[in-house]
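Chapter review. Work through the record for ABC transporter permease before attempting the end-of-chapter questions.
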Amino acid sequence: MLNNWLKIAFINYKKNWLSTIINLFGLTIGLTGFMLILMHWNDEESFEKWNPKKDNIYYFQTYNKKENVYGSAISIPLAENASKRISEVQDYVLMTNTGTSYKMTTKVKTAYQENGFPVSENFFNLFPFKLVSGAYKNALKNDTDVAISTITAKNIFGKTNVAGETIKFDNKNYVVTAVYELPKGNSQIKPDFVYKPADQIKNDKEQWGNFNYAGFFLLKKGADHRNFEKKFLDIILMRAKIDAKKGGITPQQYIDTYGPNDSLLTPLDKMKLHAESTWFGKPDFKSILILFTLSVLIVILSAINFINLKTAQASQRAKEIGVRKAIGSTKLSLVLQFLLETFLICIAAYLLSLALTELLLSSFNKFFNKEIVMNDWHIYFYSFAMVALVTVISGLIPALYLSNFKAIETLKGNFARNKHGVWLRNGILTVQLIISSFFIIGGLIINQQVKHMMNKDLGFSGKQIFQVNFNEYNNGKPWLKYERLKNEMAKIKGVESISYSEAPPATGNFSSSNMDYMSQSIQAQHGSMDYDYPQFIGVKLLQGRWLDPKLSSDTIYNALVNEAFVRKLGWTNDQAMKRDIRPGFDNKPYHIIGIIKDFNIRSLKSEIDPIIFFHYRATEWKRFNVYNIHLKLKPDDIDGTVKRIKTYWQKNVEPGYPFNSYFIDKQFAKTFATYQKQQTLFTILNAMVLMVALLGLFALSSLMIEQKLKDVAIRKTLGASDGTLIIGLTKQFLWITLIAVLISIPISYYLMNEWLKDFAYRIDMPVFPFVLSLISLLILTFAVVSVKAYQATKVNLVKYLKYE
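Structure tokens for ABC transporter permease:
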């Protein structure tokens, strides 16, 4: 029986070779896209799976109700009191940075080492990397203890068994207490060396409001993290009671004004995709979910092609079914036979998609900057499950339809009068065109949004502005280093002017704190700068004046604010110019002397934050944050100037360190990379969808028109012109296309409007993509169907009319 089924299957594959190829092609493309996106998702979900304590480690976040934002940091007093007063907590770790770099000196050599993590002393209790040398017990207890990875050990010692050796960096002699091997699995926490930032911890020990640390809590086995979140409210209240006294307000007023109002714990292995805010980059689960959904839609389109083509071929197999039923075949055996035929196509497509996925994987990895390999059984399991699902869905519907033919009617040739197959094909074709219309509309809207962002006036000019970062800005007095370099580097040929900003565009290197005026308080960014930095990058002054080096007050308490700062406090520009504000980052008031036009520092996806700018000497601790120098280059010899700057820097400023530099405009352009990738992916998926849909439409129209060749011959004999016949044959498909697009418009509008809500600077929903989707699909449908319709008008009249 099975052998007989296989013979029949291959006879039909050969007979309907075009539809077989289209089914194979569509399913192969759909499954390939599905597997690639599934591997991408699986790779993103695999972060921190290596950690044996992952089920009990949680990443800490705060929630500010007033701003409706999540914060990714915690202060030392909050963390310590949570550890002491919340019974569910077993241990905790703080990190104050995720990538420090130093030039390290040993008895053997001097080498530059990146990717250091300043952490609290219990780091290895939560992150137990494989120990190679030394011991984890008390590994970071002393201020001069350091633990290093095998990579660092080989880089600076040439070997890994170096516990007890001495390394000099950060003007201290550190003792290597442990050497560890970094995990093989994906992780955002892969430090090449860890040490305790003793001075910073000492300064922040009693500072409840210094949210300078990422926090990880290890809960006791079986503890519910929701209990932690409830109990942490008491810790928030404890802090409020202490600080509220200074302001003469109640603890609840303090919480309502300054926050945080709540906390959130995210499991360690869910942090990469599902946290609300992290120190390791903003999670983007939504984008992956969208991509996965789109890949599934392509598979569904392929399945729709399969269903349509199988039901359209019913006339060719009706007599076969009638004969088989007449000799005793049951409905179940016929269904199983048709499912087998579908499964053979699907399994062939699956094998082809595995090969195609392997071929495309290197390009896919390059696109997403990943190192995915096809060695995870989950990929094969879920992709094969998708094949099984497609087999059932795309095989069962036509199988049931075909098996329901009545033997007597099919043998008499009356099956064609059954309208159920027509309605099924038309309905499924409509769904396919709805999906195609959505892809066209979505692709055009995404393209317009990305163009809108890239063409938007940023409020500054980064052209020809070259930023060079200090590698050792946290040593000594960096502001004096900047002032010396400003004078010296101005002499380099090709340098037009020099300035500095703590918060240059595209870097995100700025802090935020509360800004108070009487009973009002807002959260705002703050950035120290040189006197002329706004003019340096072409920012416009709306009211007041710039900072003036001739006025000593401009290095003590005078400041500039942006339009967003004024708006958030509900002031007019005139009111702002008369007021002093008390920032949380200092213990003195700052007087507003100027209002500058808003300009984008971060990605255009976010609204411009309220920002206060002041001279780097105005706030004592800000002087130690001077970490870069900006140089505006003359346009006539930019490449030559960059080479001269690099030579000077590596010879006179930081020999032995890498030259860390970039142009501001190019750096800001990187903030568009994510959306440009989304645009590219949607374009590729759009092309795949249209290709699959149009091939399916061509095959379906071919089969349906072939069934009407006798009608065409009769009408042509009666004098119908070729044009009339072509319109008659294509009219049904054009109506289906029109209905499909009209149905897709409200669906597409809703979904794309939800996508646009993620952007602070977004386009108004355009009409053009919806109109173009309708016109283009009607044209494409007519073009595809009319090819076969035109061929039908050339039918051999004798062949179809000789028995009439």
